[in-house]
């Protein structure tokens, strides 16, 4: 299912400023734009294997809200069955139930149900984006196939940071909505050659579905969420990927409104 780097990384320092609520059927971390400004759109974060409660995910949600003026949700799509962080023995013991419960086809109904309710309510008047990482990147690809509710797509645009579990080229060829990819040059799961295959496909799509691919030099799998902040280059690349995500949604939310 995954490479070893899917279960490695650093814990970031900081105190998330959002709150936990129950939204669209799931326990969810939510953060609003700063200074009481109205949201320019909604971004839903689909996490890596460590799930919605991982502090790095919540700090990244805060970053999207602050930089983009978005309302950001990070739901518990794994229903409490995320992989534990750090302790190697616990990770090994948890991998089988994590993989079994959260295999893409089994998780998809939970993800789809959340986005269907979101689109019917807040998403009826605001654009919706999905930002997924590793495990969550695959779910973004599924969302971008163009499933609809009430005649509208579940999302307006997607962002996939170092996604896993992709079938290339078939998953990419099925995309009907624009998706931006952030990939590491040294990703053990997706090679640079595979990234270039993805680039060729998404950049050739018609404008309404055209995507982009950015390969970050020296970065490895997990860099968007679990960069080691002791190294300035790692922090810089994670920040650049966050800026890529925010700019992508700002551009596509404008066209969706």
From TrEMBL:
Residue runs in coiled coils: none
Dienelactone hydrolase domain mapped to chain residues: 27-252
InterPro entries: AB_hydrolase_fold, Dienelactn_hydro
Alphabetized SUPFAM superfamilies for the sequence: alpha/beta-Hydrolases (SSF53474)
Protein's name according to its UniProt entry: Protein AIM2
Lineage: Eukaryota, Fungi, Dikarya, Ascomycota, Pezizomycotina
């Amino acid at each position: 299912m995954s490479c070893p780097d899917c279960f490695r990384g650093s814990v970031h320092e900081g105190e998330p400023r959002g709150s936990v609520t129950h939204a669209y059927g799931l326990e969810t971390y939510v953060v609003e734009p700063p200074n009481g400004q109205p949201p320019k759109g909604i971004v839903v974060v689909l996490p890596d294997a460590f799930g919605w409660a991982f502090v790095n995910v919540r700090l990244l949600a805060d970053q999207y809200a602050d930089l983009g003026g978005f309302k950001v949700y990070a739901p518990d799509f794994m229903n409490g069955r995320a992989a534990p962080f750090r302790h190697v023995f616990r990770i090994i013991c948890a991998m089988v139930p994590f993989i079994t419960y959260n295999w893409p086809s089994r998780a998809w109904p939970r993800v789809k149900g959340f986005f269907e309710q979101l689109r019917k309510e807040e998403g009826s008047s605001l654009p919706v984006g999905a930002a997924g990482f590793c495990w969550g990147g695959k779910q973004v690809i599924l969302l971008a196939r163009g499933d609809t509710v009430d005649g509208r797509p579940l999302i307006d645009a997607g962002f996939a940071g170092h996604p896993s579990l992709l079938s290339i080229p078939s998953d990419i060829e099925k995309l009907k909505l624009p998706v931006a990819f952030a990939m590491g040059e040294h990703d053990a799961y997706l090679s640079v050659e595979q990234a270039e295959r993805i680039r060729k496909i998404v950049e050739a799509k018609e404008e309404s579905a055209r995507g982009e691919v950015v390969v970050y030099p020296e970065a490895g799998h997990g860099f968007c969420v679990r960069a080691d902040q002791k190294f300035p280059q790692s922090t810089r690349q994670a920040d650049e990927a966050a800026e890529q995500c925010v700019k992508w949604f700002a551009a596509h939310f404008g066209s969706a409104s």
